Description:
- The protein is α/β, with parallel strands linked by helices and 318 residues long.
- The protein is 47% helix and 12% strand.
- The chain has an 8-stranded mixed beta sheet, sandwiched between helices.
- Strand 2 (67-72), helix 4 and strand 3 (93-98) form a beta-alpha-beta unit.
Amino acid sequence: xxxxxxxxxxxxxxxxxxxxxxxxxxxxxxxxxxxxxxxxxxxxxxxxxxxxxxxxxxxxxxxxxxxxxxxxxxxxxxxxxxxxxxxxxxxxxxxxxxxxxxxxxxxxxxxxxxxxxxxxxxxxxxxxxxxxxxxxxxxxxxxxxxxxxxxxxxxxxxxxxxxxxxxxxxxxxxxxxxxxxxxxxxxxxxxxxxxxxxxxxxxxxxxxxxxxxxxxxxxxxxxxxxxxxxxxxxxxxxxxxxxxxxxxxxxxxxxxxxxxxxxxxxxxxxxxxxxxxxxxxxxxxxxxxxxxxxxxxxxxxxxxxxxxxxxxxxxxxx
Length: 318
């Protein structure tokens, strides 16, 4: 009897899902960037744009006439992404450069070559990320998620901020997540050496993205450079590759998730929307202002994280 009830419930659920699929997909897709802004003559740098929402962001911005530079660790995937974008957008100005955000030497070498060869940078999109990976360290000994998602982008931005200022008006876009709501900056154990939970480490790194955005915006006041963070939505992408459970859940519930193209909409919005030309230090989702958790609004925590980041990286950035 119980088995028949379970089967009946599953059948009804499947039928309802099938009947309402178009409405579910429409809702799950979220906001769409309506801006028709062109980017002819503009240069865009996107980290991790060889797959997922980064690749879709690159495709959109290339279609607007921008010169798009994809910075990624896996050059094989980068070459495939390049070919895919050029096939979809003939004549697109797109190139791929090697960058490993888990290695500060790679970041410095990338920035040095970039500054030698690229005269302007109008949009920097800190998109690359790793999610819920087993405990591992970057080349420099940082916990992987805080190391790649926050510290790697912190260093890259610091090395390119001068060029952004000279190219102004310019924008920095930081891809964070609603997961920041569940994060806390563990200053006593930033690299999870005492204990490690892959989910909490991810949340900490996404909170760090929001706090970095807030503090950088404060420091950029009076310049022609803005910075905003965003939550792309729950996107069906390769980001869950380190978690078997998440991969299974995402596969089963794919109808409720955004596609990479849909997930890229807020990144594109923050990069091109005319109404954001003077907006800085804010957080967006579905192409609209979004809620920021109290711990993400703390100026004291933001400044403390800035100092801790500089100390970890051995740099000065005033």
